[in-house]
Amino acid sequence: MLGNDLGSNDMSWLMSENVRMKNSEKVKSIINKLIVGGKDMLQVISDFDYTLTKQHENGKRCLSSFGIFEVSEHLPAHYREKSLVLFDKYHPIEVCHKMTVEEKVPHMIQWYKEAETLLTGCYLTPQDIINAVQETHTAMRDGTDDMMNTLEKAGIPVLVLSAGIGDVVQAVLKKHAILHPNVSIVSNFLMFSQVDTNIVLDGFQGEFIHVFNKHAAGSGPNKSGHSRSHVILLGDNVGDAGMAEVVQPTPLAVLKIGFLYEKSEERLPSFLEHFDIVLIDDQTMCFMNKLLQLIIEK
């Protein structure tokens, strides 16, 4: 029994086959706090790529915000080719379960520097980015629109904290009509300048946000959007598990939910160390929507 108002049957979804927990009693305790606190104490912090979006669909890996650039006809072929080379080089490091975060960070920084170098000087306009997103299949997790609409209706703030390309993240959310007023985005946004009659890319604004420095990506309630003391955190990489650290003062209750697909058996032990709940190859937001139902309709 989770709480005074809930019967044991209410939590059967928590015991689904694809749900993994290191400490189920801790999870139930946190969920109980979230339910008791209700919607007015809650905020949601979510990664974007492979968290709000699917990890795979129809047997193929889905595109990330960088990936949309890689297949876009609005950028030169040499960018698309070299960007894929960078992905093949650095992504295995990002998901390697044998390396520590400290060992990975220099490689992630180098990845972003090389990606920025590739982008700088390319002829591209903000409208080209919007067009690229409209022309590309962007697969949101089944039920993501329901989740975002529920959060907006309940007045629950959402921070999308992404190591991807912020301009693409923004365009994708607009495309799917889920960039509601309660949603804020902290990400790597692009800079543009005009050369003669052309608009060119100048790289990224400010310091890089990569998957392992999100905890320091503009800390404080002004950057997280709110200082609400209860947080549901959603991510697909162990680096995402620290995202709630952007909230000040320190939240009273944080439920960390991780989506795991790639190399799941190898990476599961690490995920269980960082996330309270790990969802194995779940390409939906069913779990999150059920949780929100319990919190909002208590």
Q: Would you summarize the structure shown here?
A:
By secondary structure, the chain is α/β, with parallel strands linked by helices. The protein is built from 10 helices and 11 strands. The chain has 2 domains: 8-55 and 139-190 and 207-296, HAD superfamily/HAD-like (Rossmann fold), CATH 3.40.50.1000; 62-135, DNA polymerase, domain 1.
What this model shows, in words?
It is a single chain. The chain is an alpha/beta fold and 298 residues long. It has 2 domains: 8-55 and 139-190 and 207-296, Rossmann fold (3-Layer(aba) Sandwich), CATH 3.40.50; 62-135, Orthogonal Bundle (DNA polymerase, domain 1), CATH 1.10.150.340. Helix content is 39%, strand content 19%. It is built from 10 helices and 11 strands. Strands 1-11-10-9-2-5-6 form a 7-stranded mixed sheet, sandwiched between helices. A two-stranded antiparallel ribbon has the order 3-4. It has a two-stranded antiparallel sheet with strand order 7-8. Helix 2 runs antiparallel to helix 3 (77-94). The longest helix is centred in the middle third of the chain and has 19 residues, at 101-119. It is globular, with a radius of gyration of 19 Å. 40% of the residues are buried. Mean pLDDT is 88; it is low at 1-9.
Characterize the main sheet. Answer: 7 strands, mixed
Bin the helical content.
25-40%
The name CATH uses for the topology of the largest domain is Rossmann fold
Q: State the CATH class of the largest domain.
A: Alpha Beta
H/E series, N to C? EHEEEHHHHHEHEEEHEEHEH
- Distance from first to last alpha carbon: 15 Å
Can you count the helices?
A: 10
Outline type: globular
Widest sheet, order of strands: 1-11-10-9-2-5-6
Per DSSP E runs of 2 or more residues, the count of β-strands stands at 11
Q: What structural class should be given to the helix and strand makeup?
A: alpha/beta
Q: How many structural units, i.e. domains?
A: 2
Name of the CATH homologous superfamily of the largest domain? HAD superfamily/HAD-like
Contiguous runs where pLDDT drops below 50 for at least 5 residues: 1-9
User: Which architecture of the largest domain per CATH?
Assistant: 3-Layer(aba) Sandwich
Proportion of strand residues: 15-25%
Radius of gyration: 19 Å
In round numbers, the mean pLDDT is 88
